Sequence to fold (336 residues):
Amino acid sequence: MSSPRPTARRRRKILPQINTLTIGAVFVALTAIGLVIATKQQESNVTRADELGGILNDKAGPFVNYLMVGSDTRETSDPNSPDYGGIGSTNEAGGRRSDTVMIMHVDNALGTASIMSVPRDLWIDIPGYGKDRLNSAYSYGADVLVNTIQGSLGIPLNHYIEVDFTSFKNIVNALGGVDICFEYPTRDINTGLNVPAPGCYTLDQYQSLAYARSRYYEVFRDEAWVIDGRADLGRIERQQIFLQAAISKAIGQTTANPMRTSDLINAAVNSLTVDPNLNLIDTADYLKPLASGGVQRYSLSVVPEMIDEKDVLVLGAAAGAVLAYFAGTTGPPPVG
Fold:
């Protein structure tokens, strides 16, 4: 993390929330910067989730939905990495869970793209396994997660894109870090986030991951450390800020120097797991016109509850309108 950069600008207002441990997925699928020049060899480096064959909706229609997943698997964690203590090994956190889940909805009729985050603590019916938090669905496999979203939330999915911790850091490293401003000294002793003073910083790959993963986020205010008690919902809000900054930097770099495109493409393409039928180059051509027009962000209405001695989130009364739009059965609801 570099030293703070002087700035006279006030901190930007927090926008509606979207998750982004999936920054790699969003970089490839949403901005589509330069991916049209990707070679067949680059695309061959992408891992395919073969278990999704026959599960995803492959019919063309008035909309296309992409399920984007950030995995917290420790299988690729490096014991020599400076942030290994904050991530851990498979012995400390075995298996894999979905650290982030979001859906990008491309409305072909309106020519728009929208993103909705699905909190990992959402209490939901997992087909074949009963009710549990959403992040548990992924531990049974990408196919179970897809079936859960499609069956329990009623949203048909056409494509799947996944990125993990190591992949996330590779992409941030390729960007040269991501610029984030802090109003107060900030920390998360669980992930290793440490911002000693207010200011704008270029977060390196390690501090970027610590910031994006933070669920026990604290700021030093009024002579005391104050924790953000919103947990997953607070993290979703902060991850949105990170996503905006990362995409802005990617656009700036590739616009100023097209030669940077190849480096960013390699970092992103080599980081992905996608469904068997996703053609990255065709997808980039399809999404590129949407990248410059911005993306509408929707929040899924949720309410905290205690179920089976677990702190979970359940769908709120206003969730139906957003779910219906992402399912393609109604038009876009008001943002709020």
About this structure: The longest strand covers residues 98-107.
